User: Fold these one by one.
Assistant:
Number 1:
Amino acid sequence: MAGPIAGLRVVDCSHGMAGPRATGLLADYGADVVWVEPPGGDPCRPHVPAAVSVFNRGKRGIELDLTDTPQRDRLLELIDRADVFVESWQPGVAEALGLGFDAIHARNPRLVYVSISGFGEDGPDRDLPGYEAIVQALLGGMADQLGHRGAPIFVGWPFASTGAASLAVIGTLSALYRRHTDGVGRHVQTSMVDGALAYNSMMWSETDQTVALNTPVAGASQTSTMRLLTRSFECADGEYLGMHTGAVGAFGRCMKVLGLDDRIPPSETGMDIGVPLTDEQIKIIAEDLPAIYRTKPRAEWVQLFMDADVCAIEHLRPTDVYDTPQAIHNQMVVEIDDPVLGPVQQVGLAAKLSASPGAVGGPAPTVGQHTDEVLANLAGWSPLEPAVAATPDTRPLLDGVHVVDFGAYYAGPYSSRLLADLGADVIKVETLLGDQVRGIDRVYASASAGKRSMAANLKDPSLAKALTGLLQWADVVHHNLRPGAADRLALDYESARKLNPELIYVHAPGWGATGPFAFRQSFAPMLSGYIGVTFEVAGQFNPPMPPNANEDPGNGLLGAIGMLLGLLHRQRTGEGQFVENPQLNATMTHLAYAVRRPDGEVIGAGMLDPLQMGFGPFERLYETADGWVCITAFAEDERAAAVKVVGVDRVDDDDAQADALLSAFAGRKTEEVVAELRAAGVAAAVPLAQKNIHAYMNDPENRRTGRVAECPHPTKGNVRELAVLVRFTDAEMAPHKLAPELGEHTDEVLAQFGYSADEIAALREAKAVR
């Protein structure tokens, strides 16, 4: 079925995980993607065959030696006819090949040129290889991840690559959106560091006040100190259950199910997030709850909590979710006859667009499968839009886009925040009590940066004019209300599109707008458990552990992509549409690099060893005489160099090789061996074992690149937050603005939609607005 970007021409010279994942998503939604591999194919093919199968499906594959001038000229002929070019070479390689942005832009000024590097185009780490483990080691992911031992902990799922792919797509679609009006192609730059920061954004911030008070940063934890239960428990049958009581009143309902409501009574308002527990209550949560959960099997607990409307979600193994009723209802599992792996089940398209849904186009190509076909038919490969001579419109790329966000918590609102970062005008509409997640300051600040806040009781008939005005003004409406709630507020899609037929309406429910679990509660990181991420990060044979990067940012990234796909489709057709972005679907994409054969064999998951050291002898942490080192060596010459540096033999048995390297590294000094490994061409890094937030937020280099913004606050002093994660040529960046106070812009918004000062005062007096 036609996708929102059907006909878009993409030339993909990327490799590994991030680039192919990004262009794979473009292919799923209709783009014609030609994947260009070097002779023999992408070097990552033998190491991640399942990921290759998933992220390159629907593409056409050609094989070119870009060091050969005639073959490079054929690539340039393709690029001349393309809309988008994607590369993931280390900085400087494209220029050395004559394929840098300046050269390509001169040939095809309407082409969007996308670069995905490991550490960014400039800066002190620009020349380091862009491997997931190296990025995680240096950025601090191995310090943040909980483990069964002390840090550093090898990160078991590749969220730096996943985030970089999403940011690249967001950047690409935004550049295409502006190109439609000014005809200019731009250079889009992001990196795996940016991708990791997109997930870290949920917690990575600080204020002068928190620094002065030495306020700890909340993260994945098994200890509850406030009236928010976010942890997992082993049940009577040995299976694990994740709990989250973030919904209004859910903490009190949970205590009642557990028989603890007399010792930890419910609050009057149900707004529990941020309310501290007493010392006695902390002890009850820590010591009594595990024993209580071991009194019943998991299925019984799940039903009890579902009946009480409390979020309780099973921990499943990777790909087990394929058999669950909601994933099947959401059409999240597709079957592909892969030419290398044979018939396999894969994760399907996560964002569901009603008018232009897209579809999986077929299996990933073998190396060079379509070389003759593509090169013989270059004349028929015409761009989506004709080339035009134009002067760049240098406003922020989404300047002029209007978004109304009725969402709450993080997973939904982060999507509109990402559009605000690129210049969209986002109005956040809250209840009079405010978004429940305001109780966790860092989380709220990240989800709502750059927005305006209106606090109102939308059930009050006096606000009908405001609601109508908001819906007519909006290009995009977002909410993550549970099914049926929007209908009661006249915010459902049918009501909204009667007022605004061209509206892009994005619903981000937990499980799905319809289906057997549509009314089931959903919170992060519990769906990470349902998908299998918690077993991925825990290591083989271990009980599940919470990931240090979860589905909330992932759902926001996918939501932003869904919004932009809808806007691009509307640009071309004038047609609005309904976009469904369930948190379940977004979380399933986190393990999209794993597939399942018909006999149940899982390929691509369960690779992390029991000690959470790594995936094998050459992608692993090693303890040295005075610290730790992380290495990644995929190519055989790199592996031979690694063993030579530390003075051991190269052997075929992975366990024996790891043991030999373990003994050798134990006798070496960290800095010395890292320097020798890098000199020999082996990717190596000293992994951080302590939290990196404060150092990162105060590094002048990160201020220079715009990844960190510092803004004054009237009571908190200066606030430092993650900001620019995608960079563009010929476009200004929107200035970073802190999240608004509750109702900070209520009067401004009401006046915008025709309310007089007296009418606004009357609404406030009647407690219809705040």
Note: The first strand starts at residue 9 and ends at 13.
Number 2:
Amino acid sequence: MRKWVIPAIIFLSANRISAQQAMPLTVEKIMRDPKWIGTSPDNVFWGTDNQTVYFSWNPGKQLSDSLYYAGVKNNTPRITAAGERSLINAKAAGTWNADKSLLAYSYEGDIYLLEIKSGKTTRITNTKAVEFNPAFSFGGKQVVFQQNRDLYGWDKASGLISQLTSFEAGSKPAENDDSKTGNAEEKFLKAQQEELLQVIRDKKTKKDAAEAFDKAYDPKPLRSLYLQNKRLRDLQISPDGRFVTYSLFTAPTDARNTIVPEFVTATGFTTDIAARDKVGAPQGSFESFVYDRQRDTVLPIKTTDLPGIKDQPDYVKDYTKKDTPKVREVIVNGPYWSEQGTHAIADIRSQDNKDRWIVLLNAENGTVKTLNRQRDEAWIGGPGIGWSMGGSNIGWINENTCWFQSEATGYSHLYTANVNDGTIKPLTSGNYEVQEAQLSPDKKYFYITTNEVHPGEKQFYRIGVAGGKAERITTLPGANEVTVSPDGKWIAFRYSYSNKPWELYVQPNTPGAKAVQVTNLAQTDEFKSYHWRDPQVITITARDNQPVYARLYTPDPAKNNGAAVIFVHGAGYLQNAHKWWSSYFREYMFHNLLTDKGYTVLDMDYRGSAGYGRNWRTGIYRYMGGKDLDDEVDGAKYLAEKLQVDAHRIGIYGGSYGGFMTLMALFTQPDVFASGAALRSVTDWAHYNHGYTSNILNEPFTDSIAYRRSSPIYFADGLKGKLLMCHGMVDTNVHFQDIVRLSQRLIELGKNNWELAVYPVEDHGFTTPSSWTDEYKRILLLFESTLLKR
């Protein structure tokens, strides 16, 4: 839930700054009390009737959100009954059959089947165990579900539940057949015992009879699938019920995780929070298998012959020591079966995330045939593509044609592949991104969200599965986050603009249809009484002639104080120079305040930001604080040359990645920025997590060049301007250790013009109003004391 709650007195007096200096009375009133601000709807989904849309909302300013609903005919928001919410959410997470006439879902640990036309609900299980992940299989005649680590199938016609798999912990036991063990002497003695002694012969007769009885009673027992103390994941069954696919994860044996001490606890004792590992720590390995129930065989999915599987990355050329090429570890995502189970594709990623293979899986022998290879010397990513652990858009149009997204042209676009002849066809193209994609229920269209109109807009379209011109369905400028009804006839969407928070709308899913606003309480009269600015979205030409998009806030000429503040968004791969209500709503309000006080504010989508294609996304590869910081410096130059800002009175601030950038700015460009506030900052990338950091900088021990030039702690001696650092002590993302190590470095360097504010109860994202209050009070004081003429 996104709440625009600025805690009380965030921008009020700090030392010599008075409340009147801090902000106009109207803004102060709104920010002091959350009730003036309102809330937005979130977590939007459709009901099974295709007429009801549900969403989380809190118009009554309660302690937490509640589930609301509205209809396409009666669009007045109403709150759901508390006792109904679990069931509504369970159905929303359920699985449809092919023609969407049946819905299987897990509710309170049991499996249910809903017949849409009649409304009849059948309870399939009633056990103490938890059943989950229902799916339709055996030609849609059975509902297959998971209990513990095994699959079971419920036959709709007979009502019979059958166990389909039998996973066992540990390794397969050694055979204990006396006739097959022992040396020649032992075998002779065993035979002699049986020849001479009746009691031995009687025991053998009873044993043979018991085994024969068991075999007659259960002529085809389930094959035991041994996990070998590995972790089972991605268990699923093919649509025809023949093949079961699964992966086994082997955890690293010598990895060391970090801890985060929590000092403020109810017990009065410090508690250690188990946290993540650090980049370069040993990673686990994955193996994927196909269990053929018809042939009773288990085969590994073979990935050792993938094209380029031994390719080394280009960066190794920078080092004299080169490893002997070897088969790289991969992760198999899927498989994804065609509707009837004719074919299966898989999305395979190398663990170094430099290769992605879309492959056709032969489930009978475990081999794969590559349909499409995507190679990126930086790292595979982008909208609809995700990273090594899945998150990609991929599926089937028909039994022979699959679809996926790729950045082959430099922008994420939609492609189809004929699995029989390997033909690849692009469906979209251009210098824009397909950010979301899904197939329509009738499989005639793709529904796509793109930023074709403008990099700072999100609009919703439909395009035929064979390609052609896309038809635009949403029309409101800004961002439209669309959820399609199960039958494809309606859309519900959250809409916002730069200075208009998110509201919910519904409309028929056709071009030219009228959108009806459902919620209208997000902006109270008090909130609307202040003129929240619509910042200009401009482009600044960087030193390499690339256009850098930015939000620009300009003060009234009569109030212009000649100073400027540059804000650096976090996450790296995130977009903030756009035309919708920002997730950085506190910063947006702070920027309005700064502009009221005469500052010019610039908020740039530096290199590495989302929304601008592959080259922009990977512009920070092997050098964070390189081109991305150059963009900020070029922004400062633009302010001085084009907007008459005093080049000696420019400050910079940001959190997380933005905090890292602030440190790099003050340490490596000390003559450009007079002061900066670095919030929850990464100070040394060798101490951050593996998944994010290894994509961009590889590993510290394989690419030390990248880490040394990207980590602020190595450049702390360059500090000249005033530095404020703020960090939560319970930060499980960027650990408090980061800022402690940098503080010690600054002490040892004899630097005086810095200060550290610590927040004992805060994680990476602050949640306590008093902490937000203190932090922004300090940021405002920093800029007022360093950027204004005295």
Note: The first strand starts at residue 42 and ends at 46.
Number 3:
Amino acid sequence: MIRRGLGDDVSLRVAKALKDSIVLARTDEDAAIDYAMQFGRGLDRETCRAFVRMYVNTDTVDMGDEGVRALETLYRRATERGLLASPPSLDILKV
């Protein structure tokens, strides 16, 4: 998520930086695991790898139409349950 108030130029730069970071982590998974282990609070390497793979995967590079539908469903259900006044508009940045 990127705050709309940052404007289009900054939003696109942030989105590209995030995507590049995820792609790099997928390219060198062992380095990503080494980095994440610093914050793992004693997790063993393979458990840490499983957690990293939850967030560093093809869906985080591009969630596609399925991801957009999932977000729409999430926000619709939150609205139906009174957790949100209305579903937010989704401005999906393609980088």
Note: The chain is about 65% helix and 0% strand.
Number 4:
Amino acid sequence: MRFPEYDRLDAVALASLVARREVPASELLEAAIERAAARNPAINAIVARYDAEARARAAGPLPPGPLSGVPFLFKDHLAAWRGHPLTSSSRLLEGWAPGYDAEVVRRILSAGLVPFGQTNTPELGIMGTTEPSLRGPTRNPWDRTRSSGGSSGGSAAAVAARIVPAAHASDGGGSIRIPASACGLFGLKPSRGRVSHAPALGESWSGLDTNGFLSRSVRDSAALLDAVAGLVPGDPYAAPPQARPFLEEVGAPPGRLRVAFTREALFARTTAPECAAAVDDAARLLESLGHEVVEARPVFDRDALVRAYLIIVSAGVAAEVADAARLTGRRPGPGTLEVETWALACAGRALSAEDLALAELEIHRGARQVASLFEGHDLLLTATTALPAQPLGALATRPLERVAMRAVARLGSRKIMEALLAAIGARSFDATGNTMLFNQTGQPAMSVPLHWTAAGLPVGVQLAGRWGDEATLFRVAAQLEAARPWAERAPPLT
């Protein structure tokens, strides 16, 4: 296979080869295209390709920078790329192409990366598994019978399969961290306000959602966040300015930190033994590195925050569906949307402005409760997910839930909608319920691939920091990466 070193080098290392003129960007792109052709059919991670356009871009000249010349992929959600279809895996948006670049896309292009495709996502980025009816499931490169996570499962599978060293992702409830855990990658959700949603959006899902990246190395995610971070005039939120580039935090001493840890789930009901074991192992590793590690967890009203989360997501999906219908002129309904998406949109339409305002008040109240833990602790360690990567189909909606969803969509009944939200809240976070809390609080949180099961499945641990303090997370992540290197572990697919 062309340029065999490609599989083991991260984006920063590849870019340095281009900068030193040892390897042209065009050769890196051909290596990525060759691997996409060989590996993608087995996992269905990439759903759109633009090879000719990428070849023209790689031919140069490219803007200089620590990532210039590196092949790249955008998630087919939130990353509006001028002239390229942005479907979010929905028939309602199929074929629609924006006439502008999202700010995150503009900055990626300005950093000299070379995008050549888009990755799979569940419809409108809603689910914690990537199994859309439009494109079919993305399969986990570690075990192709299992989910790659969601909603950035396509990006995660492509990075784990060594097609690209890093890829765009987004996170409204764990959509960076869940697939990072499932696919053995590093993934950091930035603080609210760190990455702009301009120009089309001020916020997404009442501030829950943010753009970010999935990578095999910590420094790649740091360099990518440097490339896209920063306020755009008119943004509704602004994270505290970073003291220096995040790339400079990688390898910087973190000092002796006070780390709280819990094996207990945050929104899920229980934690699987393998996930609890990953937490215990990470706690011992952090202690061996000189940190003070104590057992503690934030106190908050779980049921109130779950309900608030579902209300905000329902309202956000209703708005997205209405906007998509406006853009395409298509009629939203069972013929253009999956039943879960249509039910959430109908639930959002049945909710009142008061419901949404009260849900936002609830998450702000919860954020202050959670923040109190960080007055005496620098970090919180949990399992990223409450279960290891699940078999494809395991997270599908149950038959009775689908009946209720159709009833909500058909009747618009407030009573049925309330029962449906209660049912979803009782069950749907059992696999992925540790990540949503930090979308609500706006804090940065990362999944670090430190553990593998006896069956060879990766299991991540989550570390959350104070709002605006990605620097500490990058320092600790680099320390963990040096102590327990993971990048050489590759899935059977490669």
Note: The CA atoms of residues 107 and 228 lie 6 Å apart.
